[in-house]
Design brief:
about 170 residues; mainly alpha; 10 helices; about 70% helix; about 0% strand
Length: about 170
């Protein structure tokens, strides 16, 4: 799944949560995202900035669903997860036995294969700790880190009823 497909499938409340986090914690990323997305759509950023917050968020979400905005969409997801959800990333890496820097940033290479039993155990534990839709977004983003994703994780995302985006 690519970033634009993820934005097409995800619950809008998750996108709102991400954008709220950027506005509260890293306004420069929010402003840069608006400027980049507006530029991609041949609009001036001020056109978007004059909208109400709800209208801005709806416009951003709609725009992130476009294939041409895949790179900025993926960057936003990664930046949010790396800065705003470090405990989720660290706990997932710990559960999977993936070396990381204590904040969820992988140290060294990603594994070539995921242990299915360890994956199931880790998902079972973390889906009860974190908001399931947000956790599912993370799993999809993690799966984007290798071409075609890991078959074990892809199968789990398709078959586990708890791991839905909307």
């Amino acid at each position: 799944m690519k970033a634009h497909e993820l934005y097409s499938a995800v619950d809008p409340a998750i996108v709102t949560q991400i954008l709220d986090w950027f506005r509260a914690n890293d306004r420069n990323v929010y402003k840069s995202a608006v400027a980049t997305l507006a530029g991609n759509r041949k609009l001036r950023p001020v056109f978007i900035q004059k909208k109400s917050m709800a209208e801005q968020y709806a416009w951003i979400h709609k725009t992130l669903k476009i294939n041409a905005c895949d790179t900025i969409g993926e960057h936003l997801l990664q930046a949010y997860l790396m800065a705003g959800q470090q405990s989720l990333l660290a706990m997932f890496c710990d559960g999977m036995g993936i070396p990381h820097d204590g904040k969820g940033s992988v140290v060294g290479d990603l594994p070539k294969k995921l242990d299915p039993e360890r994956l199931n155990t880790t998902i079972d534990r973390l889906v009860d700790i974190f908001e399931p839709k947000l956790f599912t977004v993370y799993l999809h983003c993690f799966n984007m880190q290798t071409p075609g994703g890991w078959p074990e994780l892809s199968a789990k995302l398709e078959s586990d009823e708890r791991l839905v985006l909307a």
